[in-house]
Amino acid sequence: MLLWDQPLESARTTAEQIRRVVNEMALPAGHTPSPGLAMNAGVSLLAASDASGQAMLSRVELALNQSRDLGANQVVVR
């Protein structure tokens, strides 16, 4: 997801809100209890010093991988 003109803390808050909504969703599971959904997210900003968007996407990928290493339901900011 791309957010325009958002400070880093606002982007983190948005990712956390989406993560909570996903986590609280119940999946239809017939006759057995269904496990909740989990979501991980990596968050970064496009810096003025970035030569291209690829630098930001690399940071997002690193943050996402770090969030996965920490376990389910994590938001990591880089």
Report on this structure.
- Helices cover 45% and strands 8% of the residues.
- The protein is built from 2 helices and 2 strands.
- It has helices at residues 8-24, 53-70, and strands at residues 41-43, 75-77.
- The protein has a two-stranded parallel sheet with strand order 1-2.
- The longest helix is centred in the last third of the chain and has 18 residues, at 53-70.
- It is elongated.
Architecture blueprint of SSEs:
Layout (H helix, E strand, L loop, with lengths): L7 H17 L16 E3 L9 H18 L4 E3 L1
Parallel strand pairs: 1-2
Labels describing this entry:
mainly alpha; 45% helix
Short description:
With 78 residues, the protein is mainly alpha-helical.
Assembly type of the chains comes to single chain
- Termini separation comes to 15 Å
Q: Strand order, biggest sheet?
A: 1-2
Rg value: 15 Å
Mean pLDDT: 88
